[in-house]
Amino acid sequence: PYIHPGPFGRIGSSNLPERLQSRLGDLGADLMVFHTTTTNSNNCRGDPDIDVIADAVKKGVENISYADTISKFKKITVGKYVVGMQKIGDFAYASFIPEKTPFDDVSLSEGLKVIAPLRASCLSDIALIDAQNHFTEGVRELQDCSTFIPAMRRELSRMQTRFPARIGYARKTGDFEGLAPMGVQALVINAGDSYQAIVLTDSNNVTTEVIEKARDKTTSLVNGLEIYTSDNHVVNGGSLDMNPLGMKCSVEDLTELIAETVKEALGDVEDVRIGMASETVRVKMGDENSFQNLI
Q: Where are the alpha helices (DSSP H) in the chain?
């Protein structure tokens, strides 16, 4: 959902992945709650808004549109920034990745600025992710995303969804500083001769060291690996301590867990149908300094 999982502890919409999972157990599956193009200005007041979002997810599942063909995953460079994307039928997901030029968060308005023209031209729908990885101290929000639109439109228009959709999934948890309750989740997406791993850690960012070591440990398993994070602020050590994953724990042990999760997901790969639906709801938002007013 396009809300921010903050500001800290269990206040507001922090710990969003587990709180949504607990409300949606009747779907019979784990949720992967990615970090979207949102900032601390998009924190919600708490349970009433999370209830609304959970109900919207249930409604979306009832109205979902499915596809059974996909493109290969692709990364492009747009100016100073990296974008990952994959097309599924006539919809897609894309991620802004701070691996070349670091940033921290993308505003909701900037994300919507990208989504609207893509929906109007080459896609029926798109989910836009902020990868929230490659932790760098003191970086700022990504301000202007308008330059992404022409390049993304061009690439997504060219992508051919000619491969049968085949995906495997696995989830593992562990006792690591900076890792929240949903743990490590992995998708392995098979498109033709390519196996791409998308790993989601339930954490507030992750270090480059973790990403690089996890790639080293999975080169024999998959053709590529991306680690995105949920940006879950429940792990924050304080208002100034983001506690990124990999900073205060054993990177060796953590990346072993990631590699094991990817291996299990690879063994789970099978033919699937993939669906996408979007719902619009009203929630009460406010930045991290306005919670006395929100609540």
A: 16-23, 47-62, 108-121, 148-158, 208-218, 251-267, 291-294
CB hemisphere CA count around 88 (13 angstroms): 22
User: What DSSP letter does each residue of 177-217 carry, written as one string?
Assistant: TT--TT-EEEEEEEETTEEEEEEEESSS-B-HHHHHHHHHH
As a whole number of angstroms, the distance between CA 127 and CA 178 comes to 26
**Residue 135: C-alpha distances to residues 98, 100, 159, 289 (Å):** 9, 12, 30, 23
Whole-angstrom distance, CA of residue 282 vs CA of residue 295:
16
Q: Which residues pair with 286 in a beta bridge?
A: 43
Tell me the three state secondary structure of residue 232.
coil
Does the pTM exceed 0.70?
yes
Among 90, 80, 98, smallest CA distance to 118 is for 90
**Tokens 């029926």 appear where?**
124
Report the C-alpha gap between 170 and 186 in whole angstroms: 5
- Tell me the per-residue pLDDT of 249-270, one tens digit each, with 9 for 90 and over: 999 999 999 999 999 999 999 9
